[in-house]
Amino acid sequence: MESRAISLARTGDGRACIVSLNGEHDLSTIADIQQSLREAATASAMVVDLTGADFIDSAVLGALIASHRDAVDSDRGWSLVVGNGAGAAVRRILELTGLNAVLPMYAEQEEALAAAEDGPIT
Amino acid sequence: MNGGGVDLELTVAATAENIPLLRHAVSGFLDGIEVTGDDASDVLLAVTEACTNVVQHAYRDHQGESEPRIELIADRSEEVLSIAVRDLGHGFAPRVDSPGLGLGLPVIAALTRTVEIRPLSPSGTEVLMTFALGQD
Fold it and tell me: Quick one: pLDDT at residue A1?
């Protein structure tokens, strides 16, 4: 079975946190995702990287939207990365729900990080 | 369902931990009937959303006369794949404190050829999804 990892890293200067989801995520991992998103929200900017994610569902999207809304409300930067490695299901649900046009989304982590550190994008 | 095709039937406890188990079982079933790529991806997403709905909603306030369960039945016949996800609770009963976005059913509707939600007797709900195969 594939790994279902959630990793949390802080940038060298400590200003931003990067939450990376790898493998498949759904309701069974949502509590751990929410915990990582809360921890990342202690930084002034955060990036959620789905490049290594093979699968996410609407439960995961709900957690991402809540995290984004919280960042906007508290004037913190927030960006999403969906790189080439992301699974078809990841892109599919973002497109179906229209969230690819709502969430600040980038193909590269560096680009997303720079945008998040520039401040909130609503 | 019995369309004379290939079947998969599973019953598991209605827990979040069993959602990936059901998805992987359906994935194996799809491999076996050579449904792959985006078609398979869409089916697995729809199945996951239907199972998530059962775990989050169907057995809320369940009193325990029976173990909360998810039943999944897949049937492939000709160019149509049918997948039923059933609960013995109260299905899509609305709740004002829903932890989700309410996106599950719209996502299912967007991924399927048809979707029917119907009550089961004496209790429960069936979400019957059909997917068109071989449309590439």
Answer: 46
Q: Quote the crossing angle between the two packed helices A58-73 and A30-40, to the nearest 10°.
A: 20
| B100-127: b (≥16 Cβ within 10 Å) or e | bbebbbebbebbbeebeeeeeeeebbbb
Sign of the alpha-carbon torsion through A94, B43, A32, A12: negative
Domains of chain B: 8-132 (3.30.565.10)
Q: In terms of DSSP H, where are the helices of B13-94?
A: 18-32, 37-53
pLDDT in tens, B48-104: 999 999 998 878 776 666 789 999 999 998 889 999 999 988 766 555 555 556 788
- Of A36, A24, A96, A38, whose CA–CA distance to A71 is shortest? A38
Chain A residues with CB-CB distance to B41 below 8 A: 87-89, 92
User: What does the block give as tokens for B11?
Assistant: 């019953």
Could B52 and A96 be called an inter-chain contact, meaning their C-beta atoms sit closer than 8 Å? no
How high is the ipTM of this complex? 0.90
Residue B129: pLDDT over 80: yes
pLDDT digits (tens, 9 = 90+) for B11-40: 999 999 999 999 999 999 999 999 999 999
pTM listed for this prediction: 0.90
Collect all residues of chain B within an 8 Å Cβ-Cβ radius of residue A4: 20
Residues 6+ apart with CB under 8 A from B61: none
Those residues whose C-beta lies under 8 Å from the C-beta of residue A38, and which sit 6 or more positions away, are: none
Nearest one of A88, A87, A67 to A77, comparing CA atoms: A67
Preferred mutation among A28, A29, A32, A56 to probe B, highest tally of B CBs within 10 A: A28
